[in-house]
Amino acid sequence: MHDGGVEQLAEQLREAGHRLTAPRRAVLTVLAEATEHLPADRIHELAAAHTPEVNLASVYRTLQLLGELGLAHEVRLGDGRGYWELAHGEDAYHLHCLRCRSVTHHAGDTVRQVRAHLGDAHGFRAESVDLVVHGVCAACQHEA
């Protein structure tokens, strides 16, 4: 995502009644430019490289705020850490390779089907669904 995308996110932040501080802009920029899911400490490292006043506490506060506003999303990959990305529609699910640690998004109606099944078969109304499938990607399978 380019700076126009960051400006769009910044506008959404302001519309929700929040100021766009330098640390918040730095975190938004890191997330917008990321090519992978990032833990908070890596986001801090990248943000502080360009905006020295960014500290780890401000990164955590910003990520929490972005999550509450639906602008960013935390994914748990099973190693006890949270990995952050810009929010995307719930129609995407994550494939996590246990060997190379890559995480890829795939669109489809899988999440919709899970929601429907939970509601129809179990009477359960899912508030949110984060579907992560752990396995081995095609590239790593060929290396074995």
List the helices and strands and how they pair.
Blueprint (H helix, E strand, L loop, with lengths): L2 H13 L6 H12 L6 H11 L5 H13 L3 E5 L5 E5 L5 E6 L5 E5 L2 H13 L9 E4 L2 H6 L1
List keywords for this structure.
144 residues; alpha+beta; Arc Repressor Mutant, subunit A; Dna Ligase, domain 1; 2 domains; 3-stranded mixed beta sheet; 6 helices; 5 strands; 47% helix
Put the structure in a nutshell.
The chain is built from six helices and five strands; from the N terminus they run ααααββββαβα. Strand 3 and strand 4 form a beta hairpin.
Task: Explain what the structure shows.
The protein is of the alpha+beta class and 144 residues long. It has 2 domains: 3-86, Winged helix-like DNA-binding domain superfamily/Winged helix DNA-binding domain (Arc Repressor Mutant, subunit A, Orthogonal Bundle); 92-143, Dna Ligase, domain 1, CATH 3.30.1490. Helix content is 47%, strand content 17%. The chain has helices at 3-15, 22-33, 40-50, 56-68, 110-122, 138-143, and strands at residues 72-76, 82-86, 92-97, 103-107, 132-135. The strands form 2 sheets. It has a 3-stranded mixed sheet, with no helix packed on it. A two-stranded antiparallel ribbon has the order 1-2. The protein is globular and about 45 Å long. It starts with a helix and ends with a helix.
- Structural class, judged by helices and strands? alpha+beta
Biggest beta sheet attributes: 3 strands, mixed
What is the radius of gyration computed over CA atoms, rounded to a whole number of angstroms? 17 Å
Q: Give the total of beta strands.
A: 5
Please report the first level of CATH classification, the CATH class of the largest domain.
Mainly Alpha
Number of domains: 2
Number of helices: 6
Task: Please name the CATH architecture of the largest domain.
Answer: Orthogonal Bundle
- Ends: how far apart? 34 Å
Helicity level: 40-55%
> Unreliable runs, pLDDT <50, ≥5 residues?
none
Do you know the CATH topology of the largest domain?
A: Arc Repressor Mutant, subunit A
Strand content: 15-25%
Q: State the CATH superfamily name of the largest domain.
A: Winged helix-like DNA-binding domain superfamily/Winged helix DNA-binding domain
* Strand and helix order: HHHHEEEEHEH
State the shape: globular
Strand order of the largest sheet: 4-3-5
What value does the average pLDDT take?
89
